[in-house]
Amino acid sequence: MKALRNTPAAWGAVAKVFHWTVALAMIFLIADGWWMTHVVERTGRLAQYTLHSVIGYYVLLVIALRLLWRAANPVPALPNELAEWEKGAALAAHWLLYALMFAVSISGWLLVQTFLRPIEATLFGVIPVPNPIGESARELHETLEETHHVLSYTLLVLILIHAAGALRHHFFKKNDVLRRMWWSS
């Protein structure tokens, strides 16, 4: 059986589940966001926005849990043969990914509160998602919408760079950076 917790040399099963769950959810939400704003007819958008926001709330929760798990577990060391700039770039990219994931999620949470009819939701059917900006936030709608779009597409670019970096490690540098986040390691 694979280890649940991380070790100094490998990611554990829980970290892998968090990583791939968040990765797939973020890609889905970015694609869904584009779909619902460019393809879905205006009359059907409220249902799409509601689904999108509820998924976003759960993803925000998973990101927070992922960060807590990371704080409680050792982060596997990068290969010794990497240059210091590569190690620094990897560390910066990971923290920027976390920051952007939180920023995208929070900007979306704020955005849905500025709709003519704010979207109300509950987590697990019992925990109400609060409205952090109050009832009179309509004037923030355009700013929050643009912020959410820009942050989402910036996150997508960083996700693509992250994936390209993992593939670079696997195919060109031939180290275990990608393999240890995959299920076969």
Brief overview:
The protein has 185 residues and is mostly helical. The protein has four helices and two strands, in the order αααββα. The protein is elongated.
SSE topology sketch:
Blueprint: H1 13-38, H2 45-72, H3 84-112, E1 122-123, E2 127-128, H4 141-171
Antiparallel strand pairs: 1-2
Helix pairs in contact: 1-2, 1-4, 2-3, 3-4
> How does the major sheet shape up?
2 strands, antiparallel
| Unreliable stretches | none
Strand order of the largest sheet: 1-2
- Estimate the mean pLDDT confidence: 93
- The counted number of beta strands is 2
Helices, by number, come to 4
Structural class: mainly alpha
Order of helices and strands: HHHEEH
| Global outline | elongated
| Beta-strand percentage range | under 5%
- Terminal CA distance: 12 Å
Number of domains: 1
- Rg over alpha carbons: 19 Å
Please give the share of residues in helix.
55-70%
Describe the protein in words.
This protein has helices spanning about 15-40, 45-70, 85-110, 140-170; strands spanning about 120-125, 125-130. Strands 1-2 form a two-stranded antiparallel ribbon. The chain has four helices and two strands; from the N terminus they run αααββα. The protein has one domain. The N and C termini lie close together (about 10 Å). A hairpin with a 3-residue loop joins β1 and β2. With about 180 residues, the protein is mainly α.
